[in-house]
Amino acid sequence: MSSFLEFFSNIIAGEPELYVVTATLVIVMIVLLFLSFPMVVPLAVAAMVGLVHFSDINTQVIIQQMVTGISPNALIAVPMFIFAADIMTRGNTAASLLGLVQSFFGHLRGGLPITTCLSCTLFGSVSGSTQATVVSVGQIMRPKLLAAGYKDSFAMALIINASDIAYLIPPSIAMILYGTLANTSVGELFIAGIVPGVLLALLFSIYSYVYSIRYADEIELTEKSSWKERLAAFKGSLLGLGFPILIIGGIYSGIVTPTEAASFAVLYAIFAECIFTRHLSAQDLWDSAVSTGLITAVVFILVGIGQAFSWYISFEQIPQGLLEPLNLENASPEFILFVIAITFFIGCMFVDSLVVLLILTPIFVPIVDAANVNPVLVGVMVTLQMAIGSATPPFGCDIFTAIAIFERPYLEVIKGTLPFILLLFVMTALLIFVPDIALFLPSLAFN
C-alpha cells in the first residue's frame, strides 16, 4: 500500500519534464484517435512530435526502428499461421469440429453451451484468432442456443468470451509477437498456454452447466447421438484434429520449430481443404492468400510503428520514471504479475490488444528480467489479459465483432458478460498464485 501511495505522491510532485512529455504524447494520441485516424497514425505522430520537440535526434530513427521491429525471424510464422487458419476457416473445419463436440456433449444438461466452449477451444487451435472464432463458431452455435431456450444475452456473452480461449491455445499470434518482443521461446509459450486454455474452457463449462440447471424449465435438451453418428462425426473431423496435433506435437517433440510448424501448417491446410476434401477451389485459395496479405500488412505495420513508439518512450525513460516509485525490481513475483495484469487489462479495455502488447511489453521486460520472474509465465499472463480486454467493455474488439455478425445493439451484447469476466479474473489469480498451471508442461517438454 505504501508503494502505491508513494507512486501517486510522486505524480503530484514529480519531475515536471517527465510529465510534460508524457502528457504531450497522450494528448496527441487522444486527439488523433477522436479524429478517427487508425491507431498507427497516433503512435507514429506522437513519436515524431516527441523527437522534434523534446530531443535532438533525427526523425529518420522512426524508419530505422520500424524496420528493426519487423526484422526478427520469429515473425515469419505470423503470415503462415494466418494463411493456414484462413484456408481452414473457409473450408469445412469449423463445422466438422462443432459436429464432433456436439455429438458427444450436446444431449447433456448444459450440453450446447459446453459444446460452444469446447468448439471455441478446438477452433482456437486452428485459427489462433478470437475474432475468427466469434464469427465461425458464433454463426453456427447462436441459433442452436436460442432454439434450445437459452437467453440471447447468455449466448452472445458465452461466444464472445469462449472465443478468447483462442489467444491461449496454440498457434497464438499474440504469443509469437510477445516472444519476439521479450526474446522468449515461442515454443515454450505455445506449450505453456495449453493448460490455462483448457482450464478456462472447463470453468466456462461449469458455469454453463450451473446456468442450465437454474433455467432448466426454459431450456430443452437435444437428442442424444448414437455411437454410429459419433463415429461418423469423428471421421469427418480427423483432418481438423490433425492440425493442432501437427503444431503442438511437432514443437513438443522438438522435431520442428514454431516457424517450421507454421510452414507445415500451410501445406497441411492446403492438402486438407483443397486436395483431400476439395471444399476449396483454386479461386478460394487465391482469395485466402489475398486476405492473408492484407491482414499481415496491418499486423506488421502495427509491429513496426509500435517498435518505434516503444523505442522513443524508452529513450525518454518515461516508463522507468512512472514505474520507479513502485520499486518493482525488489517486489515479489506475485506483485509484479499483479501490476502487469492490471496494466495490460486496463490498456486492452480501451486500445487494440496488439497495440497494447507492442507498447507495454518492452516496458516490463527489463523489470521481469531484474526480478527473475519467469518470462514464459509473464507471456501467458499478458496473453490472458489481452483475451480479457478483447471481451471487456467499452472497446473490446470481440464485442464489436459480435455486434456486426449478430446485428444486435451494444448494450444487449455486453449484458451477460460479467460472470465470464469474473471467471477470467479467477484464472488470472490462479496464474499468479499457482504458476505451475502454465509452467508444468514446458518444464516437461524443454528441460
How much is the radius of gyration in Å?
A: 22 Å
Indicate the percent of residues in helices.
over 70%
- Largest pleated sheet: none
Distance between the termini: 38 Å
Strand content: under 5%
Mean pLDDT: 80
Query: In terms of per-residue confidence, which ranges show pLDDT below 50 for 5 or more consecutive residues?
Result: 1-5, 7-14
Number of strands: 0
In sequence order, what are the helices and strands, one letter per element? HHHHHHHHHHHHHHHHHHHHHHHH
The helix count comes to 24
Number of domains: 1
Give the CA-based shape: globular
**Helix-strand makeup class:** mainly alpha
Verbal overview:
It is built from 24 helices and no strands. With 447 residues, it is mainly alpha-helical. The chain is globular.
SSE blueprint and pairings:
Layout: H1 2-12, H2 16-34, H3 40-54, H4 61-69, H5 77-90, H6 93-105, H7 111-127, H8 130-147, H9 152-163, H10 173-182, H11 186-192, H12 194-214, H13 227-236, H14 238-253, H15 258-276, H16 282-315, H17 318-323, H18 333-350, H19 353-370, H20 375-390, H21 397-406, H22 410-414, H23 418-433, H24 436-446
How would you summarize what this structure contains?
With 447 residues, the protein is mainly alpha-helical.
Features:
447 residues, globular, disordered N terminus, mainly alpha, 24 helices
